[in-house]
Amino acid sequence: MNHPLRIFTLLLILALGWAGLAQAQSEQVYQVEVVVFSQASGQLAAGQSPGPDWAERAVLLDSTARSDVRNIDQTRYRLGTEARRLNDQGYRVRLHKAWEQPADDNLRVAVTSGTENAQGIYPAQGLVRLSHERALEADVSFWLNHNVQGQAVSEHLRQNRRLRVDEVHYLDHQGMGMLIRVSRL
């Protein structure tokens, strides 16, 4: 084989390898699990309330028809021990959800807990977007909504965090906290 043909063959093999790697990454499926909690007797740190369009352009986990975003049965949760430990230590778990989703930078998943009020607000609600531009990152925005003497008061946790797969990450806010774990399936 002459030299130019060898170089062309080598470049073709490398290009096909990169294309295969990019396709494998884009087809990657993750299990995402979140636990949002508050201090049972903690002082509220009022923040921005979710607007009526809080889940605009997001996939609503509990009502999506997408086959690639699915709720996971509680028997498969991986943060159950941590959630029980939080309750035992006096914290109040307000939302505990897990789901499967593809690796899609443009996908935001909206999760809720409790009953929606007349204004479309849940006791706990939030958005999760996974990104893998450089490394796996989670962009989260969660609200704990309270009724205090007839007034709606919201606590808002908003963070972007680099994640390691299969590790539990703690995100902190004044009156609330969040655990997140992302695993490959």
Outline: globular
Mean of residue pLDDT values: 88
Summarize the helix and strand pattern as letters. HEEEHEEEEEEE
Q: What integer value in Å does the Rg equal?
A: 20 Å
Assign a percent range to the helix content.
Answer: 10-25%
Low-confidence stretches: 18-25
The total count of strands amounts to 10
Query: How many strands, which pairing sense, and closed or not: the largest β-sheet?
Result: 5 strands, antiparallel
Strand order of the largest sheet: 3-4-1-10-9
Query: How many DSSP H or I helices?
Result: 2
Termini gap: 43 Å
Strand proportion: 35-45%
Query: Pairing-aware structural class of the strands and helices?
Result: alpha+beta
What are its keywords?
alpha+beta; five-stranded mixed sheet; 185 residues
Report on this model:
With 185 residues, this protein is α+β, with helices and mostly antiparallel strands. It is built from two helices and ten strands, in the order αβββαβββββββ. It has helices at residues 3-26, 80-88; strands at residues 29-39, 59-60, 70-71, 91-102, 108-113, 124-131, 137-148, 151-162, 168-172, 176-184. A five-stranded antiparallel β-sheet has the order 3-4-1-10-9, covered by helices on one side. The chain has a five-stranded mixed β-sheet with strand order 2-5-6-7-8, with no helix packed on it. A hairpin with a 3-residue loop joins β9 and β10 (176-184).
